[in-house]
Amino acid sequence: MKHHYPDTPALLAWSMIIPAALAIGCASMAIASAPEKTATPSTSAATRAASAAFWDAFHRGEYEDIPRVMNGLASAYLENPGDPETALHLAHIHLWRLAERARLAEVPPTITDEIVVARKYFSEAAHLAPDDARIQGWLASTVMAEGNVHRDERLTRRGYFDLMAAKDAWPEFNLFTAGYVLSQLPITAGRFKDAVDYQWETLDRCAGEKIDRSNPEYAQVMSKETTTGRDRVCWNSWIAPHNFEGYFLNMGDMLVKQGNVETARRIYGLAKLSRTYGEWPYRSVLEERIAQAPENVALFRDEHRGERTRVMMIHSTFACTGCHQGRSAELSANGADPRAR
User: Fold this and answer.
1) Distance CA 80, CA 89 (A)
2) 20 membership: H or E segment, kind and range
3) 181, 177, 179: which is closest to 136 by C-alpha?
4) Buried (b) or exposed (e) across 5-38, using 16+ Cβ within 10 A?
5) Which CATH number is associated with domain 49-169?
6) For the chain, what are the domain ranges?
7) Could you give the CA distance from residue 253 to residue 247 in angstroms, rounded to a whole number?
8) CB 85 within 8 A of CB 41
9) DSSP secondary structure of 95-106
10) Ordered per-residue pLDDT tens for the chain, 341 residues
11) Among candidates 35, 54, 140, which has minimal Cα distance to 92?
12) Cα dist. 228→171, 224, 236, 334, 338 in Å?
């Protein structure tokens, strides 16, 4: 009787495939069974000091202090990588360095590394605080930015659709985030028009009524100012002392870029409704914007002219501090903790 045995090459192949398959299965099981990273909020002295340094520099607009603040936050994070606030502050400090790079005498090409690091820490913060839709919006924005840097269309699209999801999760906040990010697009891009529409929709939601697109009025809304609930992001707070003023500065810029000069002037003017307008460090910028609006249409559409102030807010030296710079020692009217959300 003849017996048929697999030839030697086939035996060798199976002898290699089976251990490899087993190794892959073991690796998958080991990874799947690993404990999940969980939030472990910190109250250590190092964490408190790092948080205070972050807010102090941010509220004072001390861009030059970023390296020192980064070191303190990184040290606190290494002490406790499970603290969501520390991860979030680290993400923001890297994003701030990128966003206001116009402050630098020379912008190094390595500035784009800040996108990668910010994205990582936003990802950590989002994992540790999954119910905070604001973080989802910031994370999606950095994913889009990273995709643009690497010309990775798949990554860019992923970031965009994640941003749309964040917008739906907390419209009052992430409509602005989406519009602000997309305000960089050329005037001919369809999504630039979407960005302007998002700003109008934010006003509608914050006001609880549809705002006239040709003759916007907002004085009737001011009595709705609040420091609680989701609508708190429509107003000034300890975190963003001039959020209201900065919002209208940016929206006015977007309307100017669109060529809607007279409506832009009205929108700029609404910033003056704020009770703290007189304390806002960038009120002179807004006043100049109103006067220079017709000339700024061309400047905002073509920002490669060496300008540092007469550019869209998102490309300016006050891209973040336009809303956040204020008196850091002053608590909000209700005595809210600086770490409050």
Assistant:
1) 14
2) helix 8-32
3) 177
4) eeeeeeeeeeeeeeeeeeeeeeeeeeeeeeeeee
5) 1.25.40.10
6) 49-169, 189-341
7) 10
8) yes
9) HHHHHTGGGSSS
10) 555 555 566 655 556 666 665 666 777 777 677 788 898 999 999 999 999 999 999 999 999 999 999 999 999 999 999 999 999 999 999 999 999 999 999 999 999 999 999 999 999 999 999 999 999 999 999 999 999 999 999 999 999 999 999 999 999 999 999 999 999 999 999 999 999 999 999 999 999 999 999 999 999 999 999 999 999 999 999 999 999 999 999 999 999 999 999 999 999 999 999 999 999 999 999 999 999 999 999 999 986 666 677 899 999 999 999 999 996 444 333 333 444 44
11) 54
12) 16, 11, 11, 10, 14
Residues in the chain: 341
Helix (H/G/I), strand (E/B), else coil: 127: helix
Spacing of C-alpha 243 from chain mean position: 14
Which amino acid, one-letter code, is at 8? Answer: T
CA atoms of 16 and 11, how far apart (whole Å): 9
Query: Which residues lie closer than 8 Å to 225 by C-beta, 6 or more apart?
Result: 235
CA atoms of 260 and 151, how far apart (whole Å): 32
167, burial (CB in 10 Å: exposed 0-12, middle 13-18, buried 19+) = buried
Q: How many CA atoms lie within 13 A of 280 on its CB side?
A: 30
CB 46 within 8 A of CB 78: no
CA 3 centroid distance within chain? 71
Tell me the two tokens of residue 74. 């990184």
Which tokens go with 246? 């900065």
Which token pair is 161? 């659709």
Q: Which residue has the tokens 């850091």?
A: 328
pLDDT tens profile 57-116? 999 999 999 999 999 999 999 999 999 999 999 999 999 999 999 999 999 999 999 999
